Amino acid sequence: QVQLVESGGGLVQAGGSLRLSCAASGRTFSRISIGWFRQVPGMEREFVAAISWIGLTYYEDSVKGRFTLSRDNAKNTVDLQMNSLKPEDTAVYYCAAGSTALLSKPSSRDFGSWGQGTQVTVSS
Known about the structure:
Blueprint: E1 3-7, E2 10-13, E3 18-25, E4 33-39, E5 46-51, E6 57-59, E7 67-72, E8 77-82, E9 91-98, E10 113-114, E11 118-123
Parallel strand pairs: 2-11
Antiparallel strand pairs: 1-3, 3-8, 4-5, 4-9, 5-6, 7-8, 9-10, 9-11
């Protein structure tokens, strides 16, 4: 089992930045793939970005060039640096963990463990 805790959400103006962090425990971190998803009330959960344990990264087209993933295996964390934020980025952001190598663009089905989420609000 993998336990996940997200942090770093908040309220920012359009064009601003936030850095989200996903802290993992309960499994060898170097063999865990981490995904980020977001959800707006009343809408389906949307893939944002992911980094696999073999080093592959994926970004949804709407965030490519603005969001950047990084992982620190010593700290068991994966960060999502979000720049040039837009109002449409407003959502609850969740990190998720799985054991697959993510050889293709992942979906929520590739992840078995989920954090509680952190709210990101971007004002116009």
